[in-house]
Amino acid sequence: MLTMEDIGALAAANAGAFTTEIEPFTIGGRTFDTDSEPLIMGVVNRSRDSTYRDSVAPTPADAVRRARILFHQGAHVIDIGAESSRAGGLRVSTHDQIDALIPVVEELSADHVPVSIESYDVDVIQAAVSAGACVVNLTGTRDDDAIFDIVGSAGASLLMCFTPGETVRDELSIRIEADPIPALIEHFEPRIEHAQSRGVRSIAIDAGLGFFYGPEVDPISKIRHQAQVLLHSFRLRSLGVPSCQVMPHAFDVFQEEFRSAEGVFAVLGFLGRVGILRVHEVARVRASLELMRTIDVEL
Hints:
Low-confidence stretches: none
CATH superfamily: Dihydropteroate synthase-like
CATH topology: TIM Barrel
Number of domains: 1
Number of strands: 10
Number of helices: 11
CATH architecture: Alpha-Beta Barrel
Structural class: alpha/beta
């Protein structure tokens, strides 16, 4: 059970982390202080393998339509991918990913809708950035040198994800540790320095909460782990950059009300000072964040 006393104790034990300054994040030429305005990243999937069916866009026109809806609901940037990160998802060739993504990126960019491209493929990322994507959501470490160079040369922003393997498709399970934060810092610290050395100026990090959990991890343990990492995200501020977290769906708890889950987890993310929330339910999450910015504890 989570209580106010628990949250108070967590904050007291890590008081310095709350005040650690972090860099702003840039999206399409606009720079945001994610402490004062947490950003919403809306999701559009060109892959039919996504478990969140409402995010699936079978055609480029469907993807553009959904992206426009999410943008007008309050998303600051639209994250588009063409290959599912889930275990067993279909492998999509570089050529097919480019065909699925580039018309969408071009049309949205022409409409001044900021686009993030989710990929670990160098050629896909290069094509998307050339077409106007202003954020790269990097789901692997295999080609960091080449991808950091692409992002730096284009003046784009980089969201680097934690993956246990070289790419998210390696299907190595996220490990549930007693305290995952030190391992995340150890993973990201040298990568951030590496990216900066290759010209990347705007960086955020993602702990990979939405990636593969093996069959040895029962659903409730997964939900508990995701919630704990959200609440502890402020400890990642020592890296000097904003943190991005996917908002869980927690189907085993919410069941037929699973579409409400992201709005609830957004509250935990806000308390944990998550700077970018990657979501499917933009309107629900926007309302939750607005509530948290409106209320206080003073009587």
